[in-house]
Amino acid sequence: AAKKAGRNTFRFYTQDMNQRSAEFLLLENHLRLGLQKQEFVLHYQPQIDIRTRAVIGMEALVRWQHPELGLVPPNRFIPAAEETGLIVPLGAWAMQEACRQNKAWQDAGLLFAPVAVNVSARQFSEDLEQVTAAALQGADLAAQWLELEVTESTLMEDVNEAIVMLGTLKRMGVKLAVDDFGTGYSSLSYLKRFPIDKLKVDRSFVIDILDDPDDAAIAGAVISLAKNLRLKVIAEGVETSAQLDFLSGLGCDEMQGYLVAKPLPAEQVADFLARWSAKQL
Length: 281
Ligand code: C2E
Ligand code: MG
Ligand code: MG
Ligand code: MG
Hints:
The chain is of the alpha/beta class and 281 residues long. It is built from twelve helices and ten strands. It has an eight-stranded mixed beta barrel with strand order 1-2-4-5-6-7-8-9. Strand 2 (55-66) and strand 3 form a beta hairpin. The protein is globular. The structure holds ligand C2E and magnesium ion (MG) (3 copies).
């Protein structure tokens, strides 16, 4: 079919690709500049113990505070950052900043819970242990207060490498969570060889959990799997109390989602914690 379409198609395709790579270069340059100019910020989403309602963690989620575009969500620039390798310095910055912020919350007596930082595949196969050690040391934060979120697909890219890296991080005392669990295709037998602490039930299974029996079955299976492997399990993207009740009924330990709070700028976290603890009374 390609042959039959002839040269016109080829020319058209090339032009399209050139245009794409020009856009890509532009984004890459902007990202690089944004990093230099320190335009990235972290927002923090509370993670809650479903039974006690205690805040048991804060997930750090990066945003780009662009001078013209405003607050740009990560889905708009993380893929380009990954493809260009800029995720490595960006990710290192996010880890340092999250550790520094968590230390500041502890020093203020506000919060004693791990901060969870997302780590992408590219960082995972580079010197992640050095970057992690430097972030902890730079913030004077003990390793138990840092959790790293790695997606299921990252772990499956190179299983043996993943087992070694997770083992190293685990021995440092860092906590480990598998993000977006259920969306990749992991062989379940590998799960027991990964020294992880927690599974995160992907938001895509939570959205329709009340109406779609398949989603409910998958969420239930992930929760049972976690229990049987003695792992913690957290549901992400919980928006309604009906979803929360359902997940709680399935035995889910922890949750995060708009029901409790959207990701918050660091300076709003104190306020949130005060309101949240008042709500419990
Ligand atoms: P993720 O790690 O799975 O994070 C969960 C995403 O779901 C976040 O989107 C969060 O704001 C959103 N979310 C949480 N609760 C709810 C809810 O109740 N309803 C809805 N509709 N959404 C909810 P966000 O902040 O846009 O981040 C998207 C993704 O970008 C993250 O998915 C993560 O994969 C990536 N990301 C964010 N920060 C970083 C980072 O520092 N490094 C890397 N490598 N990736 C990051
Ligand atoms: Mg995450
Ligand atoms: Mg996730
Ligand atoms: Mg997700």
